[in-house]
Amino acid sequence: MLLTATLVGRLPTAMAPLALLLAARADHAGTALGALLAALYALCGAVGQPLLGRAVDRRRLAGVALAAATVAGTAFTALAVVGTGRDPLLSAALVAVAGLATPPLEAGLRAMWPRLVAQQDQQAAFALDATAQEAVYVAGPALATVLCQLASPALALLGCAILGLAGTALVASRQPARVLNPVRREAHWLGPLRSPGLLVLLGAATLLGASLGSFNVYALAAADHHGAGWLAGALPAALSLGSLVGGIMWARLAHSATADQLLRTVSVRFAAPFALFLLTPEPALAVAAAALPGLFLAPWLATAFQLGDRLAPQGTATEAAAWLVAVIGLGGAAGTALAGQLSTAGPVAVAALTLANAVAAALTLAVRR
């Protein structure tokens, strides 16, 4: 129930970018403004998560998440009423507030897993969480599209407010979010960032995000190269499907190695298949190849969050998980931007960047244990 509630509460993070793009187009404000608003939402979400995560570590998830969801829901509702085309500055301010106030449900739940399940079951719990996350990024854009088509983009933005508040309220009503007392922590302005091991993990997670962001651009470049528009959606979908399968398999496996050893192994296996895209395979083969790195994506995330919890100084587990969420998002934005500049050179150049990012993530973990 707790996992389901967090998935509902996290739907706006996947719905909002597409809803903002469609809303800007419907308001005749232009796709460029919609893209800027979507990017601003993602950026502000990345900034807000560690701050809210620190607040959760000092208090409780229920109160912090409910307050944040209320603020974000109010901003989405106001945006649905005023639209995106009348006053771009007002729209940007509301989007920034909605992003900054994104409830820290993902980080909050991942910080709770080690306290909710026995140690021998933690790997399965983290893997289940990482696998279920794929449902958010499949259902979110689909739901935003349906609401926009059946009604209007304003209803999609209002849906972000309603689902965010509803999911957060369900999480807050559960005993772990209300009763678990904060762990005593040593006061330090750096919080979990004073852990050298966590900094290395955050660096690798940033590069992982960059590889995912550049792969989305590769999908577009490959679609143009082969004259097959369906590839733009099929390649990321195949990656997500592979992640879903890999996460389920990972949850069922028993591992004797430590989390850091597992993460290094998984990182290499995630990176290696991207070399196949340097060969510019035919569309059908490209889709099949995209599932291969996906098989190790959910295991990468599950192991990284499990390791991050162990590396975080006492009392900073939620903020540490929030930093992981944030840097993956920031890496994705950076990877998308850089790959966009290379896309004119063709899909091979973008594939090389994707491979380089994934290999760099693996090397970062290998150089510093």
Quick overview of this protein structure:
The protein has 369 residues and is an all-alpha fold. It contains 15 helices and no strands. The longest helix is centred in the middle third of the chain and has 31 residues, at 196-226.
Topology (SSEs and partners):
Blueprint: H1 2-26, H2 31-58, H3 61-82, H4 88-100, H5 105-116, H6 122-150, H7 153-173, H8 175-179, H9 196-226, H10 231-252, H11 259-271, H12 283-294, H13 297-311, H14 317-342, H15 347-367
Helix pairs in contact: 1-2, 1-6, 1-7, 2-3, 2-4, 2-14, 3-4, 3-7, 5-14, 6-7, 6-10, 6-13, 9-10, 9-14, 9-15, 10-12, 10-13, 11-13, 11-15, 13-14, 14-15
What is the CA-atom radius of gyration, in angstroms?
20 Å
Q: Any idea how many domains?
A: 2
Content of β-strand: under 5%
Task: Say which CATH homologous superfamily of the largest domain is assigned.
Answer: MFS general substrate transporter like domains
CATH architecture designation of the largest domain: Up-down Bundle
Number of strands: 0
Q: Stretches where pLDDT falls below 50 for ≥5 residues?
A: none
Named CATH topology of the largest domain: Growth Hormone, Chain: A
Query: Helices and strands, in N-to-C order?
Result: HHHHHHHHHHHHHHH
The coarse silhouette is globular
Q: Can you give the helix content as a percent range?
A: over 70%
Structural class: mainly alpha
Major sheet: size, sense and barrel closure? none
Distance between the termini: 36 Å
- Mean pLDDT equals 85
Assign the CATH class of the largest domain.
Mainly Alpha
Counting DSSP H or I runs of 4 or more residues, the number of helices is 15
